[in-house]
Amino acid sequence: KRNVLVIGAGGVAHVVAHKCAQNNKLLGDINIASRTVGKCEAIIDSIKEKGNLQSPGVLRAHQLDAMDIEATKALIRATKSQIVINVGSPFLNMSVLEACIGTGAAYLDTAIHEDPSKVCETPPWYANYEWKRSQACKEAGVTAVLGVGFDPGVVNAYARFAYDNYFDQVDSIDIIDINAGSHGRYFATNFDPEINFREFTSTVWSWENSQWKANKMFEHGKEWDMPVTGKSMAYLTGHDELHSLSRFLDVPNIRFWMGFGEHYINVFNVLKNLGLLSEKPVLTARGQEIVPLEVVKAVLPDPASLAAGYTGKTCIGDLLKGTKDGQPKEVMIYNTCDHEECYAEVGSQAISYTAGVPAVAAAILIAKGTWDSKCMVNVEEQDPAPFIALMNNMGLVTRIKDEHGDRLLEPMREMA
Ligand code: NDP
C-alpha cells in the first residue's frame, strides 16, 4: 500500500482522484488536499456517487496551503503518503517538490513551474526551476516525474516510442492538439483562465534547426487533417514539452500546434488589445485598484462548470517525419477522447480527463516499481511502452497511423 496525496482540487485533480480511487487496491489511501477543503470534499462525494472506489478504503479531504513546505511535509507524513500527485496551480511546483525531497515521497506534476511575476522565461524552461533540484532528488533517492499529463506527458512518451522504434533519423516532431468539442458558451477557457492566457500572451518558442526561435502567438497557422476530428486550423504555440524533448531526443525541429477557432481568436484579440488580459493593476475612477485579468476571470464561466453538456471529441497526437532504411517515413501516434464519455465516467470534460489519467498511470508504474527511478526524470527518459499499454486499459487509447494503416498501438507487439 503506497498511499497517495493529491494536491489541488480543480478539474485535473477531480480526474486524478477518481482514477486513483478506481485503483486503490494498489495505491492505498487517497488523500486530497487543496486551499479550499470544500472542493476536496465535493470530489470525494462525486467518487462515491459514481461508485468509482475499487475496494473499501480511505478517501480523505484536507485543507492545505501547498506554498507552505513545512505544512505539506507534515501532511505527507501524517497520511503516510509515498506518492504525491501535484495537480494544483503551476505556481506550487517547487514548494511541493521540496516537500517530497524532504520526506522521500515520489513527486509527479503535469505542468512546468511558473513564477507569477514573470510572463516569459528563457528556454529551456525546465532549467530555470525543476532541473536545478535534479541533484537533490538523486541524493535523497526521490523519484520525480515531471510533466506527466497529456501534453506535456503522453506526447513526450509518443515521441520517444516513435523515435526509438520506427526511424533511423527523425527530422521533425509536430505535436498537434485539437479540441473539436463544444461547450455551448459564448466564450470560456477549458482550464484556469489566468494560466490559459499566460500561455498565449508570452513569446512562442519553437525548436528549429536545433535552435530556439521566438515567434508571436497566432503568427503561424496551418490546417491539419487529424484522424477522427478532421481538418482544423492550429497555431504554433509555446508549450512545455519542447523544453525537454529538445534536450533528450536528437531531433532538429520540434513544434507544438494548438487548434483555435476564428471566434476564440477574435475574442482573445479584443480582450488582449483592450488590455483586459493584463496582470498589472489599474486605478478605476473611484480610486480602486483592480487587476484586469482577475476581472475577466471572474466574469468567465468556471471551467469546471463546462463539463456537463460538453459534446464532441479531442484529438492530440505527434506527427514524426524522418527516414528509415534510406526511405522517407511518416508516423502519427494519437489519442481521441470523447467529452461526453468522460463526463459519464468521472464527471469531467476531456481536457481534464486526458491530463489526469496519465498522472495516475505514472503513479501506478511507480507503485509497481517499473518507473520508480529514484531520481528526477522527464517522461521521455522513461520506457514509454508500459505507460502506453497501461493507459490503453485506463480509458486513454493510443492509435498509430503509418504506411501500414491506422491501428491500435499495442507497444509490445509493435516492438516485436
Ligand atoms: P484548476 O485551476 O482547476 O485547479 C488548481 C487547484 O490548485 C485549485 O483547486 C486550487 O485551489 C489549488 N491551489 C492553488 N493554489 C494552492 C495552494 N497555495 N495550496 C493548495 N492548493 C492550491 O487547475 P486544473 O485542474 O485545470 O489544472 C491543474 C494543473 O494541471 C495545472 O498545473 C495545469 O497547468 C495542469 N494541466 C496540465 C495539462 C496537461 O495535459 N499536461 C492539461 C491541463 C492542465 P482552490 O480551488 O481552493 O483555489
Fold and architecture overview:
This protein is an alpha/beta fold. It has two domains: about 5-150 and about 355-385, NAD(P)-binding Rossmann-like Domain (Rossmann fold); about 155-350 and about 395-415, Dihydrodipicolinate Reductase, domain 2, CATH 3.30.360. It is about 35% helix and about 25% strand. The protein contains 15 helices and 19 strands. Strands 10-11-12-7-15-16-18-19 form an eight-stranded mixed β-sheet. The model has no long low-confidence stretch (mean pLDDT about 95). NADPH dihydro-nicotinamide-adenine-dinucleotide phosphate binds near residues 66 and 88.
Write the layout of secondary structure elements.
Elements: E1 4-7, H1 11-22, H2 24-27, E2 30-34, H3 37-50, E3 59-63, H4 69-78, E4 83-86, H5 93-103, E5 106-109, H6 134-140, E6 144-146, H7 154-165, E7 169-179, H8 193-201, E8 204-208, E9 211-215, E10 221-226, E11 230-236, H9 242-248, E12 253-259, H10 262-274, E13 282-283, E14 289-290, H11 292-299, E15 313-324, E16 327-338, H12 339-346, H13 350-367, E17 376-378, H14 384-392, E18 399-402, E19 405-408, H15 411-415
Parallel strand pairs: 1-2, 1-4, 2-3, 4-5, 5-6, 6-17, 7-12
Antiparallel strand pairs: 7-15, 8-9, 10-11, 11-12, 13-14, 15-16, 16-18, 18-19
Helix pairs in contact: 1-3, 1-13, 4-5, 7-14, 13-14
This protein binds NADPH dihydro-nicotinamide-adenine-dinucleotide phosphate.
